[in-house]
Specification:
With 366 residues, the protein is of the alpha/beta class. Helix content is 22%, strand content 22%. Strands 1, 2, 3, 4, 5, 16, 17 and 18 form an eight-stranded mixed β-sheet that branches. A five-stranded parallel β-sheet has the order 6-15-7-8-11, covered by helices on one side. The longest helix has 20 residues.
Length: 366
């Protein structure tokens, strides 16, 4: 602890999902000791990252490509068990095996310039002073709610994927599902089995992907996301540029009309949604499967954002501050990408730590 009352470490990892645990593992392999040289802070009540908040009907068998963490394979998982339980138990065992000593629940309120080449990480358990920061906060805490005229007048229920409880609560109801991603189609196919009526609306026509998603296709998708991040634009998810896999369940839903898409409505009425051409749909529920945004507001005092609204990143390093690395952001938002990003970030941080500390900087104006 230094004279300001902050606890000194070489590095702070914010977030203990896939990306954060990968980074912590590689920090240990690089010779850094948890709670002495680095600390992992997580706001969630228990291990499991964002997976612990997933709806019960999302079983492990429905998960699209969960890649094992480095150093410990995920094997023998029951495909019919909720993914929240499978991955929560896996992350728990992982943290214990490698002694990562994750601090939770801890809210990170702000990261600021501390002078002397260090960063001040202000949290609900006090201030940490660090020479490097790995931000692995993901997107789950920032659900995106679009705004449409009349939204506040709707008499029914509106909820987001982040609050989706499973299909049972929609039995006998008329449901409008908004969003053309994987979550939207999964919600829709489940709800259609119990609802009185479902309507699917998307801003763009959905793209269904035939055949396997091979390595070349993966590289192309990642490159598209990476290009936006390099330009300082808010990242798209990797999934958003890959298209929807055309599984047997999806084919059946298309054949039976469940996945018959309507263009985005123009306004919301007290009893449903309406288009300017005069069409209307009555609804009891509007479910917004409209995605998430990066949870990075706590980095605002460092002024890392570009005019385009995103943080420009080279590899995992923030271009405006070499001490800050973002993993699970943009091109590393997939599970395998998060693992690779954790390793890459630690490699650069080791080089940073081996250098002499920089001269003191002026704190950024808030």
């Amino acid at each position: 602890m230094n004279n300001s009352g902050a606890q000194d470490v070489d590095a702070v990892v914010i977030g203990a999902g896939q990306a954060g645990l990968s980074a912590a593992y590689h920090l240990r392999r690089a010779g850094l000791v948890p709670d002495r040289d680095f600390v992992v802070l997580d706001h969630a009540p228990r291990p499991g990252g964002a997976w612990q908040f997933r709806w019960p009907s999302l079983t492990y068998g429905k998960v699209h490509g969960m890649h094992s963490l480095p150093g410990m394979e995920l094997t023998g998982a029951d495909a019919d068990r909720p993914s929240s339980e499978v991955i929560g138990a896996y992350f728990t065992a992982y943290e214990e095996r490698f002694g990562l000593r994750v601090h939770r629940p801890v809210e990170v309120r702000a990261v600021r310039e501390a002078g002397g080449g260090r960063l001040a990480v202000e949290t609900s358990e006090g201030v940490w002073s660090a020479r490097a920061l790995i931000n692995a906060t993901g997107t789950w805490d920032r659900p995106f709610w679009p705004r449409y005229p009349g939204q506040e007048t709707f008499w029914g229920r509106q909820l987001h994927t982040a609050d989706y409880p499973g299909p049972e609560e929609f039995a006998g109801q008329r449901v409008v599902v908004v969003g053309g991603g994987a979550s939207g189609t999964q919600h829709l196919m489940e709800i259609a089995e119990v609802a009185a009526e479902t309507t699917w609306v998307t801003r763009r026509p959905p793209v269904f992907r035939e055949g396997p998603f091979d390595e070349d296709a993966g590289r192309t998708a990642v490159a598209m996301v990476e290009e936006r991040v390099r330009r300082g634009l808010p990242p798209l998810s990797v999934v958003s540029v890959t298209g929807l896999p055309l599984t047997d369940a999806v084919r059946h839903a298309r054949e039976t009309g469940v996945l018959e898409r309507e263009p985005m409505f123009d306004r919301i009425t007290p009893t449903g949604v309406a288009w300017d051409d005069g069409r209307t749909v009555e609804a009891d529920v509007i479910l917004w499967a409209t995605g998430f945004r990066a949870a990075i507001d706590h980095l605002a005092p460092l002024r890392l954002r570009e005019p385009g609204g995103g943080i420009r990143v080279e590899g995992t390093r923030a271009v405006r501050d070499e001490r800050v690395h973002l993993v699970g952001y943009g091109p590393s938002a997939s599970t395998i990408g998060a693992n690779r990003a954790g390793r890459a970030a630690v490699r650069e941080i080791k080089r940073l730590l081996e250098r002499e500390p920089e001269p003191e900087r002026e704190p950024a104006l808030v």
